[in-house]
Amino acid sequence: MRALAVLSPRLRAGVAWLFGPRGAPLAERVVAFFTAAIVVVGLLLRARGYLWRPTAFWLDECSWAMNLVEQPLLELSIRPIGFMWTSRELARLLSLSEPVLRFMPWLAGVSTVLMTPALARRLFVNPGARLLFVFIIALHPVAIDFSKEFKPYSISLALHLLLILLTLRYLATERGRDLGWLLATATLGGLFAQDLVFAYPGVFLLAGYRSLRLGRRHVVAVVSTAGFIILLLLLQYFLSWRNNPPSDTNTWGNKYNVFYEGRHAYWAWARERQESMAEFPAFRHKFWQTELLRGRRADFARHVDNAVWLTLHLVGLFVIAAWRRQRAVLLVLPVALVWAFNTLRLWPIGAFRANLFIVGYMSAIACMAFDVPRRELARLGDVVPALVLVLAPFLFFDRYWSNHKQSLTYSSEFPKALRTLLRVKAAAGGDVREPLVLDRRSCDPFRYYTEFHPTLSRGFRPAVRAAFETTCVSDERLYRHALLAAMPRAPLHVYTILHSERPVVSLMRHHLLGDAQQTYEDKIGHHTLMAFQRPADSETATPSPVPTPAGSAVAPEAETSEDATFPNE
Question: pTM of the full predicted structure?
Answer without folding.
Answer: 0.89
